[in-house]
Structure formats: structure tokens, C-alpha cells
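Look at a sample.

——
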Amino acid sequence: MQRVDKTNYYLNIAKAVADRSTCLRKKSGVVIVNNDEIISTGYSGAPRGRKNCIDLGYCCKKKFFPDIRHAGYDACRSVHAEMNALISGARKDMIGGTLYLVQYRTDTGEYEKAAGCCQMCRKMIINSGIEKVIVRGQTDIDFETIYVKDWVEKDDLLNGKITY
């Protein structure tokens, strides 16, 4: 029996955190780690005290913007997993740290093919001082490492090539 490596260990924890997500379409979970210590976690869900989509029985974003994939975020009830993890930790503890992200589809259980952070979350991650983001790939051992400095240097908001 082999011991799981640290990257997949934290991604597995992020998957468990994602299981708490209340989104009807996609489960998202985050673990922020620095110096091999978990700083905070977050999953996608409505703000405290508000009804979640699982409580309502429908996705507000899909109801009001059925044909838009990467827009209509104002209609989404959820606070993104990245945002929830960022507001739960202290910036001084996140500087130089790593954000581990797992996203999977509720309809198939498969990991999200184009998993990543939206533009708003990217801006918040840049300001948090986090150094890199590691995103779960298509299997339980695959992952992609993204360096936050690349988001700063390749400012896609200026070059018209917005990526999600």
C-alpha cells in the first residue's frame, strides 16, 4: 500500500469539503495551506442565513440566465468556495500559501473538465498573497498547478482574452 502524496492529500480534503457544497450544478471545495498547515477551507453555498439552491429546489442562475455559462453571477445564490475560504483565513497566514481546488459535476460526479477560478476569485486570490493554485484534474491523481504571478503578468482582463 502506497502513501498518498501531499498534493493529492490536500486535494482529497478539498473534495470532502466540496461535498458540503449546496449548488445543484457543481460542487466546489477549497483548502488553503501554508507551511504544511491548513489555514482555511471553503465550499460553494448561499450566504449565511439565506436559502441555498438545494433548499429552493432550483438554480437561480440557470432559471434567470439559462443559456449563459460564464456570466450571470449576480443571479447565483452561492458564494464561491474560493471566496469562502479566503474570508475565513487571515491574509498574514495565506501569504506564500497554496489554494487547492476541486470541482465536480452533480449530474455525473465527474471532475469538472475546465475547473478553475473565475475572474472575481482570481482577483481576490491575487490580493490574498497566495502563491499558487492547484486544481484537481480528470482523475483522483491528476492536477494542474497555476502560479498566481502568471495571472498578474498575463493580465487577461487587459488583453481581451478572458479565460475561466
